[in-house]
Amino acid sequence: NKRNPHQPEFVQAVQEVAEDIFEFIEDKEQYHEAQILRRIAEPDRVVSFRVCWEDDAGNIRVQRGWRVQNNNAIGPYKGGIRFHPSVTESVLKFLAFEQTFKNALTGLPMGGGKGGSNFNPKGKSVREIMRFCQSFMTELYRHIGADIDVPAGDIGVGGREIGYMFGQYKRITNNFTGVLTGKGLEWGGSLIRTEATGYGAVYFLENMLATRDQDLHGKTAVISGSGNVATHAAEKIVQLGGKVLTLSDSGGFIHDPDGITQEKIDWVKAHKTHRRGRISDYVDEFKGATFHEGKTPWGVKCDVALPCATQNELLGEDARQLVANGCIAVSEGANMPTDLEGVHVFRDAKLLYAPGKASNAGGVAVSGLEMSQNSERRSWKEEELQQMLKDIMAGIHARCEEYGKRDGDYIDYVKGANIAGFKKVADAMLAFGVV
Ligand code: NDP
């Protein structure tokens, strides 16, 4: 706290990891001597910059942009860019720290980073968004590169924004390289990148359920969010025979007791992305559903839950409610959606609980595969990528299992993910010397 005043999200993320790491390194002098945990918790650098842009009315607007390069011990910095008014240095430092562990867990050679701006894309015209992205990249370009730091999308940054930023990078540098991921298929993007995070979170859930000889068939699922991750998680649950009961956005959640089918998910996707609509409109479209303004969906009885909206959206009280309602598994699609108290509730109840750094790593994993395809200048087939994603999620599950076993059969995925991610990065850092 003293080292990072006014950075609650960052301190929370480090605290959560430190609890497990301290236990792991207790008898391992090499990590203490080199102060490895401290070094991972201090970003290599934080670049902060001004972003000026002109709105449609001709006003000059000023925003702040950041790129946090946390750690590149095992590969180039890699992590998304977020455009949202809630973005602060603390939020980006927490995300870059988490990303370091997540990327290590995928087994691919990627370091950890994150970036973004407090720019609010809501209500902005397409031209305004384009001008903002161009201005953002006009500064960012000097800090990134295909072998240095490879940003991607995140909240508020989808394929359109990546296009504007990539176009600006190319214009400034005259280089067509894989400097960003999440690109369009015509210009270096990878198949299944859009679906990867949501699908991956469900594959991870399947792996967890299998440890108790169960699968998703006939299970009810509560999902938060209605963006990229939430809608694709919903889609995969439906494909695997489960029933999705809820989706949400920052206005509240919808509950559809008949189940949110593929047709309904397609409507949500189109409504939220193309029409930029609200999830509350769902109830006008589909009878039998109800909208709960300003609420999160965790009180709805379910077998499995997937928080897929944002950080700290599932609190201790919500976690207790899920456990009391008989929920058996939670797979996080978002980053740190469960607060520290909620995490303790799930771990104490020995729920099958996957932290985002393990369960939502499918997105960055396919981004890693996009980098490989760019380096090879070729595109892999959809079936190949689907299989690779499944294998990568199974691999992450196995790594968590290796380090997270406790009390007989119970797997503490938080502990497993923290230790497995830490060990890989820490050993690489040690190989480079103690200072
Ligand atoms: P999107 O922007 O596509 O969707 C975000 C969703 O979360 C929207 O439904 C949004 O509602 C909702 N939301 C945002 N802020 C809040 C809030 N304060 N309270 C309630 N709901 C909120 O983002 P993604 O789906 O891409 O990302 C969701 C989460 O997953 C984030 O934590 C992200 O970091 C994480 N993630 C994403 C990856 C990816 O590949 N996309 C990879 C790994 C992690 P509204 O429309 O009202 O804003």
UniProtKB/TrEMBL annotation:
The keyword Endoplasmic reticulum does not apply. Keywords: Oxidoreductase. InterPro entries: Aminoacid_DH-like_N_sf, Glu/Leu/Phe/Val/Trp_DH, Glu/Leu/Phe/Val/Trp_DH_C, Glu/Leu/Phe/Val/Trp_DH_dimer, Glu/Leu/Phe/Val_DH_AS, Glu_DH, Glu_Leu_Phe_Val_DH, NAD(P)-bd_dom_sf. Signal peptide: none annotated. Pfam families: ELFV_dehydrog, ELFV_dehydrog_N. Residues 190-433 form the Glutamate/phenylalanine/leucine/valine/L-tryptophan dehydrogenase C-terminal domain. The keyword Oxidoreductase applies. SUPFAM superfamilies: Aminoacid dehydrogenase-like, N-terminal domain, NAD(P)-binding Rossmann-fold domains. GO terms for molecular function: glutamate dehydrogenase (NADP+) activity. Belongs to the Glu/Leu/Phe/Val dehydrogenases family. PANTHER family: NADP-SPECIFIC GLUTAMATE DEHYDROGENASE 1-RELATED. Homohexamer. This is Glutamate dehydrogenase. It comes from Parerythrobacter lacustris. The gene is gdhA.
